[in-house]
Amino acid sequence: DLQMTQSPSSLSASVGDRVTITCRASQSISGYLNWYQQKLGKAPKLLIYAASSLQSGVPSRFSGSGSGTDFTLTISSLQPEDFATYYCQQSHSFPHTFGQGTKLEIK
Amino acid sequence: EVQLVQSGAAVKKPGESLKISCKGSGYSFTSYWIGWVRQMPGKGLEWMGIIYPGDSDTRYSPSFQGQVAISADKSINTAYLQWSSLKASDTAMYYCARLLAGDSHDAFDIWGQGTMVTVSS
Predict the structure, then answer these.
(1) Taking residues A68-87, what's their average pLDDT?
(2) What is the mean pLDDT of residues A57-78?
């Protein structure tokens, strides 16, 4: 299976901060990379697909970039509702593995 | 409204069987793959497998192949996840999700609310 490694595993930040989360694939996945947000007790929500395409309804402060093996999710100005856990997922080959998650907490 | 509605929480004993469901509405159920994702308590997301309800084509993660069965009944727009003999380690939240597929992407765009499965003697 392709391995997806996120960093950091946890992150403390303040409202208004710019935050970047990194995801690395164990081999090239081209642009087949998705990002999800999961709040406590809720189902995950798709934020970004195909590495940089913003899902409908997702605020423009979220952006994604990268290709090959290295990808980033950036939140340009953190809002109170953004504190959650974020997961990357590769959809290049089965099984479509997830990263281990990055927990974004309030500083 | 496009939605997936899952069956309610289940409490079972080790060795028992279980089938949980995921009913789609508001879209053409037979035209989209449906996937299942496990989340053990306090842990991350694990991709289990997907099914295409139109022809029941199914793909499993090697980690779950032989441990669960994924099926679908297109006549009632419902996908299923089934265990023949539960173990305590199957205790988890299980999500179904619709796969948004395109030339350059596959992503789960619509998620069910989750079904909590607890296996305890």
Answers:
(1) 97
(2) 98
Q: How many angstroms separate the CA of residue A90 from the nearest CA in chain B?
A: 9
Would you call B121 an interface residue with chain A, using a CB distance cutoff of 8 Å? no
CA distance A20 to A76: 9
Instruction: Tell me the one-letter amino acid at B15.
Output: G
- Please answer whether residues A84 and A19 qualify as being in contact, where contact means their C-beta atoms are separated by less than 8 angstroms: no
Where are the alpha helices (H) located in chain A, listed in sequence order? none
Residue-level pLDDT at A91 = 96
Nearest to A96 among B44, B95, B106 (CB): B106
User: Which residues, 6 or more positions from B27, have their beta carbon under 8 angstroms from its beta carbon?
Assistant: B2, B98
**What pLDDT sits at residue A103?**
98
Element (H, E) at A102: strand A102-106
| Confidence at residue A55, expressed as pLDDT on a 0 to 100 scale | 96
Q: What is the pLDDT of residues B45-72, one digit of tens each?
A: 999 999 999 999 999 999 999 999 999 9
CB A49 within 8 A of CB B100: yes
Give pLDDT < 70 ranges for chain B.
none
Residue B40: both structure tokens together = 């053990």
Tokens representing B98 are: 């619709």
Q: Chain B residues with CB inside 8 Å of A45's CB?
A: 111
The alpha carbon of residue B98 and the mean position of all alpha carbons in its chain are separated, in whole angstroms, by 10
- Strands A102-106, A10-13: pairing is parallel
